[in-house]
Known about the structure:
2 domains, two-stranded antiparallel sheet, 4 strands
Amino acid sequence: MFKDPVTGIPVKVISISTASQEVVRLRSINSDEVANYAQVVSEITDYICEHLKSNGVQDCCVENATPDSLSLKKLASGAAAYALIKSRGQRAFVNHALATKRASVCKGCPNNRSSSRSGLSAVAARKMISAIGDRETRYDRRLGTCSSCGCPLKSKVHIAQDIVEMSLSQKEVDACPPKCWMIKNLEQSAGAAGKSLSIAGISSCSTCGG
């Protein structure tokens, strides 16, 4: 049972997404705080991780993802991204030309890896691929899984830049090659603002990010 620190109301965690939606609903009713869905997902994921650690389970709570296995934290950030994609509809995607340009970068990237997933990681990958519908690029056969972030590239190249940025941890940003389109926009935005690299609240650009 997750006790919401804002409202003090206990919420049963059947799944991360349903619990997060309930916390957002309760905060909107019982407090003046404007609940951020991604932040609530992070809070509930941290709660689950602490519970698992107290029971001797460690591996699922690391931040690093691999092509074959996603951590609980990465699964949670992916769930938040998926929820945004479904709620935005067409506005969750970039146009075909930009998706193809991104795919052309990914196809030759050393972090573009083949993967053999199972369990929740496989389910998460299928969910993200299904979210893009019939969108595709001519490079799809050469796209695997990004070893920096753990995401299926054939879906990620179509996603709006701000959703991509929201789902990246700082460790994942650091693991991206310098020419990666996922971080190029972050670097340009940070430079224009005269600030250090930041994941949140960065505007997109027509060259590299939706």
